[in-house]
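From: lab user (bench 3)
To: helpdesk
Subject: output format question, protein + magnesium ion

Hello, I'm new to running complex predictions and I'm not sure whether the block I got back is the full result or only part of it. Here's what I submitted:
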Amino acid sequence: MPAGPQTPAAAAWDAVWRVQWPEIADAVIEQWQEPLFLVDRRTVVQHVNPAGRQLLRRQGTGEDSPVWPLSHALGVDGPSAMRLAGAVAAGQKDALVASGREGTDLAITVNPLRLRGQPAGAVVMVRDPTAAEQRIADQVRGQRMASLARLAAGAAHEIRNPLTAIRGFLQLLQSECREGTAARYVEIVSQEIRRIEGITADLLLLSRAPAADLRPCELGSLLRDTCDLLRASAADRGARLDLAVQPGTPACLAVPERLQQVFLNLVGNAIEAMPHGGTVHVAVRQATGRADGGTGLVEVEVEDEGPGIPPEVLPRVFDPFFTTKAGGTGLGLAVSDSIVLGLGGRIAVESPPARGAKFTVRLPALASPGHG
Ligand SMILES: Nc1ncnc2c1ncn2[C@@H]1O[C@H](COP(=O)(O)OP(=O)(O)OP(=O)(O)O)[C@@H](O)[C@H]1O
Ligand SMILES: [Mg+2]
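Helpdesk reply: Thanks, we reran it on our side. This is the complete output you should expect:
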């Protein structure tokens, strides 16, 4: 392009930018936070930026070499696919909202691309509003949890020291009064101290950074052990535990004892939700979609036949100290959430009307079959 009258320095800069333009454009595309697809005139994907590849993984497209038409990669419905193809072929700007795989809404913008004056395809920007909102919600929840956890851990630490002294003197008292009213009172105090110790242990767990000693963990056998531990207390309430493990479910990386705490809490809550009995359905399987790191996902579903969770209660169940139970501390789900987030996973909860509650824990799989 001929330049106007320029100083020699400006002309030199201009030349540098022109020469380096491909690199600059590449950097912009690669670092763009939103999914961006370069497609040819038949909407065949020619290039995808990292945010776009992440979107495709979430959509479960699962292939890294972009050879398919964009509408197929995104899994959008027929009319939206036709509109997208039409706009790209005609070299027209267009914006549409299409529903992608698994019912996610995708806001798609088509920006025509001309090369040497000729229509050459389009730059298509795709926003996944649910994922963006989810990211923000996760960040807010994470930050809120982190500051709450710091406070809680500080308090727990302070409570522990005097508690150790109290327990020591109580043991002395216990050896002095072995029967009568005093012995009964001492026993009650001792029980209550055990309860406080349980709470402080939970509070410390809440604030702990993700553990370094992660090991491969088979969810099937972990859930079998968990159900075995809880079967007796379930039977006391007339509840049954039904466990289905999909063969070939990949392992995940975790500290098994800590992850078991999560399932003890979830299955425990499910049993407690059915005072008149019923069945807790536990399923372990490989999930669709991909973790942020690109690996597959494994999931554990815990569904009960209790009354479910009222809509006004649902947003609060992961809050520390939120409980609707007379003897509850409200730490079970908060601790579980923090453990699962620490492993790069997520706990989701659903409670459709007139059904029981369903908690789903999704964790990154260690290796997914077919992907090395
Ligand atoms: N399966 C379920 N069905 C109905 N409500 C549930 C279920 N799971 C959790 N909840 C609700 O979420 C609240 C918080 O659960 P959470 O496990 O954190 O604490 P908790 O069970 O009340 O006490 P804790 O686990 O500390 O003994 C419960 O009090 C209950 O209201
Ligand atoms: Mg609980």
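A quick orientation on your result: DSSP finds nine helices and twelve strands in the chain. Let us know if anything else is unclear.
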